[in-house]
Each structure stands twice: as C-alpha cells, then as structure tokens.
Amino acid sequence: MTKLTASCLLATGLLVFTVGRSTSVVVADDAQSNVAAAATPAASELPAIRFARKDAAKLAERAKQLADAAGQAAAQFEVATKAVADAKAAVAVIDKTLADATAAIPLAEQAKVVADKSVTDVQEALKKTEAEKANDQEAINAAKTVVETAAKAAAEKTKQLVDLGEAKKKNETDKPIATKKVTDAEAALKPLADAKAAADKAAAEAQTAVQAAQKRLDAFIATLPKADPAVIRLVQKFTHTRPLLACRFDANADYVITGAQDNLVHRWDVFTGSHAEFAGHRSWVNALAMHPSTNLLVSGANEGQLIWWNVLDATPTAQRTVAAHQGYVRAVAISPDGQLVASAGNDKLVKVWNVADGSLVQTLTGHGSHVYNVGFHPSGKFIVSGDLKGVLKQWEVGTWKHVRDLDAGILTKYDPTFKADCGGIRSLDFSPDGKLLAAAGIADVTNAFAGVGVPTVALFDFETGTRTKVLKPKDNFQGTCWGVKFHPSGEFLVGAGGGGAGSLWFWKPDDEKSFFAFKLPTVAYDVTFHPDGLRLAVPLYDKTLVVYDLGPKVEVAAAPPAAK
Question: Are 147 and 122 in contact (CB under 8 A)?
Fold first, then answer.
C-alpha cells in the first residue's frame, strides 16, 4: 500500500534560526562541551546535538543490519553461482562422454566385425584340423584354444559396443535433465543477483547516511547550526495511495504519524522507511495529538470517535475508543502535562477527556457553529477553541470557566451567492512562551464554493486578547492556510496550505508579509516541526508525506561500494 521513495538520510539541527540577516540562538550554556564523548544522548544535551547523535547511532545500527544483509545476500549469491557452475560442469561431462561414445561406436563396430570374422575363420580352421588331423589331439586342442580365444575377444568387442551404446543412451537421457538444472540454477541466480545488487546498494546508501550523520554531528558540535527557511530542501518523501490530512512526529522522532482519507492512521519509520497502519476509524482521520512524554497518540476522525494508540506497538491496535462528538472530530490536543485531551467537533462542542482512562472531564458549550480547532496554552492553564465564524473562546482549565472571546472574524465570511459561511479557524498555535496566539485560515473570500481567497493568519497578543497582526503571503496567492506552527524558538512561524497549488509561508511575528515562501507540489493540510527545530513534515493532497530541512547542508562524499 505504501512505499518509501527517498533516502533515509535526514538533516538534524539546533533551536537556532536565521531570519533575513539577523541570527538568534536558543541554546544552553557550555554549547561547546565535549558532547561527542557520550555514547548515549543526555536529556540536557542541546536538541540538535542530541538528535544528531541519536540519528547517527540509529543510522549506524541500520547500516550494520544492512551490511549483514548484504553479506548474507553475497553468500547466497556465491552458493547459487557455484550451483550454476556445477550444473554447467555436469553438462560438459555429459557432452564429452556422449561425444566420446559417439566417436567410439563406429570403431567398436568395426572391431566387432573383425572379431566376429576372426571367430568364423578359426572355427573353419578347427574343422579343417579335426578332419585332417583326427589322430593329432594336440593340434586339435591347439585349434580349439585359438577358437576360444577368438570367441572371447569377439565377446569383449560385443560388450564394448553394447556398453558404448548404453553409455550414449544414458547420456542422451541425462543431458536434458542436466541442461534443465543449468536453466533452473541460472533462473535462481537472477533474483539472488538482483537481491545482492539491492542489498549492496542499500548498504552503500546506509554507509553514506552514517557518514553524513557523523559529519553533521561533528559540524553541529563545532558550529551551532542555523535554521534558515531560505535553504529549505526535501530530505524525505513517503508515498501513499490516498491524500494525507494531518501529521505529527513522535516524542523521540523515530516515526512520523499521519492521518489519511483511507480511514487509517499511518506510521512511517524515518530511519528504515517501514510502514504500519492503525485500523479503527470508520472515516477520514484528520486530527492527531501526541503525548508530550509517552508513546500515546490520540486520533480523531469524521465519524466522531477518538482513539488512543501506542505508537510503538509492532501491530498497532486501538487501546481505547471514545464516542466523542456527533459529527466530525475536527481537532485534538493534549495538555502540556499530558493529563488531559481536548477535542472539538461539528456538534459545536469542546470536550475535555482524562488521558488515563478516557472519561469525560468537561463539556464546554457556547460556540454557535462548528468548532474547527482547539489547543492548550503552553502554561496548561487555558484552552482556546476556534469555530467556523472566527470566534476564539478562551476557557480556564480546572474551573472550566469561559474567560473571553477573541475576534478572528477576518477568517470567515458569509457568501450570499451560495448562502453559506466559509472559512473558519483551520489551525491554531501558541508561541512557545505563550505570549502570541496564531489562528490560520482564509480571508478576502470572493468565491466560497471554489475557496478563492487569501491564506491568512490572525496573530493575537494573548495577554490582552488584541489582534496585533494579520499575516498574508507577500506575493499574490489564492487558497487557504490549513496549518500554522511557531518555530520552537518563537522567532518565526510557518503556514502550510494552498488552493490550486500548495505553499509554505514563513513570517516574523512583527511583519504582516511573509519573508519567504516555498512552493509545494500540491495543497498541504498540516505542518509540524521535528523536535530538533530544523526539520518539518507536511502531509499533501497528492498522497505524499514530505519532510523538509531548514538547517545547514553538510556535503558528504558518496560511500565506497559495498565489500564483496
């Protein structure tokens, strides 16, 4: 159903960024400490170095496995090659034996004729001796001996001719069998040769990846890397059979998880490319939330259910299923302390659930239209939810009091032609320090049915609740901003979306026009940062999941061919 279509070589980085000509660094003290000496990443280690070290170790482990597999493939190929050689040698022996027998038979036939004539001649001589020398027993005995000798010689020549004939017949019978063995051995050799070539290629690529990962780690230790949208490049691509709608990295960034239009949650291993499917939903999966410190994933789908999963299960099965909403589950979020799950749906409700047992903690009412998004404030003290009509509601966690409404009405419009509201809060995210709230969607709509408008992010000062900026692409673009995320540094944010085409837009919080845009193959429905702060993943309508790198590129020479 799925296949990996790109190398497993990934970039890694620190929470360091470059915007325009300015550079900011978010690091701990002692950045130049000898982190390379540690075999296992420490929790306090700088994120980029920690993940670079982890990537190098994982890729080295993978490279060893692939090198072992290449060795096994080479051994199997060698055995099969010997089998072909042995089969051909057997045919050669048969051919030579057959040729020798074929050449010897005429000579043997001639020798038999001579021997038979000799027998006839000595028999006549015996008769003559017996007639002429009837009283000479010694002469008669001598003649008889000659006859016996001639008869014995004739019998030997006859046997030689029979043996040669049988040998020829046997080799004529054996040759098709031996020839088939050659054909079968050569046929068996072909897939083994292909497997060996593939194993050698994979081992060589893995060696290149290890070399790159180690060089990247060394480079990051020597000089702190900078996340710069201007150097964005594709580093990984996963291909599916249906459009992808949402994505998240797990806490350890071993996997990237996606929701899709095939009613499944998908897990891709970023190091091996292996793929697993989580079956349990009955409709499109468009909402995902990862627990901040465990392997828990909560997914939501259009049939209204929430499902709890362990993303590390070899064969993922639903751990808990909750009938959460009447109609679509539009969004799911897990609290910073990992104890609560918030969900939003088309039933105009926000619901809060206990992570541990899935029990309902609170139902938050007040929205007048479909609730499209929900998120926790980084402090864990508040929940914010946004609906179709651009209403952002702030709720206090624990007391569940409605604190206030924030106006993101710029992201919605009533279209009198189609007599429908369009737009709404398609994505929201807080800055890491919790001071800013970004709500994404579409503005300036001219055709609700076709989604003709401008991708837009409304930016709020969360302390005052005032809208400070309206972020739009610098260049003309028609479509929707379906996903928005602050960089872990908080210094810039990225929007993902599209209409007829797809794009990523990068904004500084104090500038309403994007400072950089990157064209995507098609519409993007979400965006999420890797924990290293340099990579980001984007699920696309063209059925692919793409991973981009914003960090510095470290040039690495190709690995030598795998040893034979």
Answer: yes
Residue 450: its pLDDT value, please? 67
Contact assessment for residue 494 and residue 537, using Cβ atoms and an 8 Å cutoff: no
The pLDDT value given to residue 130 = 83
DSSP code string of 347-399 = TS-EEEEETTT--EEEEE---SS-EEEEEE-TTSSEEEEEETTSEEEEEETTT
User: Taking the model in full, what pTM does it have?
Assistant: 0.79
Return the pLDDT at 30: 34
Q: Look at strands 350-354 and 360-364 and give their pairing.
A: antiparallel
Residue 508 buriedness (CB in 10 A; 0-12 / 13-18 / 19+): middle
**What integer pLDDT is reported at residue 1 of this predicted model?**
43
Which residues of the chain are modeled with pLDDT < 70? 1-44, 448-450, 556-564
Q: Nearest to residue 324, comparing CAs of 381, 374, 276? A: 374
Q: d(Cα 112, Cα 119) in Å, to the nearest integer?
A: 10
36 in Cβ contact with 217 (< 8 Å):
yes
Distance between CA atoms of residues 200 and 561, nearest Å: 7
Task: Tell me the DSSP string of 448-483.
Answer: TTTTEEEEEEEEEETTTTEEEEEEB-SS---EEEEE
CA 422 to chain centre: 36
488 closest CA partner among 40, 11, 46: 46
What are the structural domains, with CATH classification, of the chain?
Answer: 47-223 (1.10.287.1490), 414-523 (2.130.10.10)
Which one, of 515, 479, 474, 484, lies nearest residue 498 by Cα? 479
Residue 556, pLDDT score: 57
Report which secondary-structure segment, H or E, holds 279.
strand 275-279
Cα first-last separation, the chain: 33
Q: In whole angstroms, what is the distance from residue 511 CA to residue 521 CA?
A: 26
Q: For residue 174, what are its two tokens?
A: 């054996």
The CA distance from 101 to 272, in Å, is 59
Burial tier of 69 (Cβ tally within 10 Å: 0-12, 13-18, 19+): middle
For helices 47-132 and 137-222, the axis angle rounded to 10 degrees is: 170
> CA-CA distance, 171 to 94, in Å (whole number)?
6
Cα 549 to its chain centre, rounded Å, is 17
State the pLDDT at residue 224. 87
Could you tell me what percentage of the chain is helix, strand and coil, using 3-state DSSP and rounding each to the nearest 5?
30, 35, 35
CB-based burial of residue 368 (10 Å sphere; 0-12 exposed, 13-18 middle, 19+ buried)?
exposed
179-188: long-range pairs with CB below 8 Å, 24+: 179/91, 181/87, 181/90, 181/91, 182/84, 182/87, 182/88, 182/91, 184/87, 185/80, 185/83, 185/84, 185/86, 185/87, 186/84, 188/80, 188/83
